[in-house]
Automatic annotation (TrEMBL):
InterPro entries given in the database record: GlbO/GLB3-like, Globin-like_sf, Globin/Proto, Hemoglobin_trunc
Entry protein name: Globin
Keyword Amino-acid biosynthesis on entry: no
Pfam family membership, one: Bac_globin
Organism name: Paenibacillus agilis
Keywords: Heme, Iron, Metal-binding, Transport
GO molecular function terms noted in the UniProt entry: heme binding; metal ion binding; oxygen binding; oxygen carrier activity
Keyword presence, GTP-binding: no
Record family assignment: Belongs to the truncated hemoglobin family. Group II subfamily.
Amino acid sequence: MERYQGTIYEALGGESVLRQVVEAFYPKVQAHPLIGPLFPENIDPVVEKQILFLTQFFGGPAVYSELYGHPMMRARHLPFPITPKHADAWLSCMEAAMQEVNIDPELSQVIIQRLRGPAYHFVNQP
């Protein structure tokens, strides 16, 4: 990330580009045979919360916490069976979404590395 200044959120281009990525991401998630069934049919509220969460997670305004309190993401994911294959699928969908939105490949890899920790932290099944 040496060639980028500031936060991942800023390097990405702020809310408008992050929204494009998340909006490209969820159709991929919904179509994925492994992780799609874990998500509700009405994905719109999930999209909006994900935009707010990733904004904060990548160094932008802390709007998620202001609206919903501490993210407590592991606790929020505990009701769902999540294996390492689920984490891999989620990350793969995110990588494909960033490619679709033409995010710089170097920045995309920085983002995937940043998301890898939380994705595997949510694993609760072998």
